[in-house]
Every structure is written in C-alpha cells, then in structure tokens.
Amino acid sequence: MGKYDDIIGLPHHVSSTRPHMPMLDRAAQFQPFRALTGYEDAVQETARYTDEKVELTEDEKALLDMELQRLSDDIANRPQVTLTYFRSDKRKAGGAYVTTTGRLKKIDDLEGTLILASGERIVIEDIIEIR
Question: Is 97 within 8 Å of 85 (Cβ atoms)?
Fold first, then answer.
C-alpha cells in the first residue's frame, strides 16, 4: 500500500470564495529571492576608481593666472579655450579630470568661475591647464 493511496483519488479542491490564480502569477511565486538587493551595485560603486585632486605648485598657479589674464583681455572676442579641470564625484571621495573645449563667454570673478558659451561653469580653482 502506498503512502498517499487514501487521498490519490479525491477530486481537486476549488475554492468558492477565492478566484483561480492565473498560471503566470503562480509561476511568479517561485522566482528567485534576492535578500541583498543593491549589494552588487554597492560593490561596483566601491570598486569604481576616482582620482584625487592635484595641488598645483606656485609656479603652475602663476602660469594659470597669466593665461587667465590673457583670456580676460581677449574676452570680447570670445576666445576658443580648452580647459582641463577636476570634477568632483557626487557619490564618493575624489573625482576625475575632464577636458572640455568651448568659447569663453565670461570670467565671473565674484564666483570664481569661467562661463563658456554653452552655459557650462568651471570653477577656476579646479583648472589645471588652459590651452
């Protein structure tokens, strides 16, 4: 005699109060469960490399000041400039060095920024090279 012989022939129960569950929903019950949601993203974020901001020497700062003065004198012509500057990372310590090219619209001494014709604002203290 088998273990389930007493119930094997009984009809399948159908609830009179609850609707029948569609097969798609029934299958969804058995999908894998991820207890550590976001863990892989956190690991990738931690492993993402960022640069540290380089501190310029006094000589390098003087050269940049001279270049800024030259650009200030030529601002009416909206000179084409290529700037390399440090952009801080919004999620973790450090950042990355970015190079951008555009027409110089304004030097805002009050805020300490260069404003390009595209509207991009670059903090003067973050600039390491002007071409």
Answer: yes
The neighbour count for residue 98, using CB atoms within 10 Å, is 12
- Residue 2: C-alpha distances to residues 6, 7, 9, 94 (Å): 9, 10, 13, 69
Question: Taking the complete model, does pTM exceed 0.85, yes or no?
Answer: no
Q: Strand order in 127-130's β-sheet?
A: 121-123, 113-116, 95-108, 80-88, 127-130
Sign of CA dihedral 59, 61, 64, 65: negative
Torsional sign, CA 105, 109, 60, 126: negative
103 near 117, Cβ under 8 Å? yes
CA 46, CA 54: separation in Å to the nearest integer? 21
Would you say residue 2 has pLDDT above 90?
no
pLDDT in tens, 19-62: 988 888 887 777 776 677 788 888 888 888 889 999 999 999 99
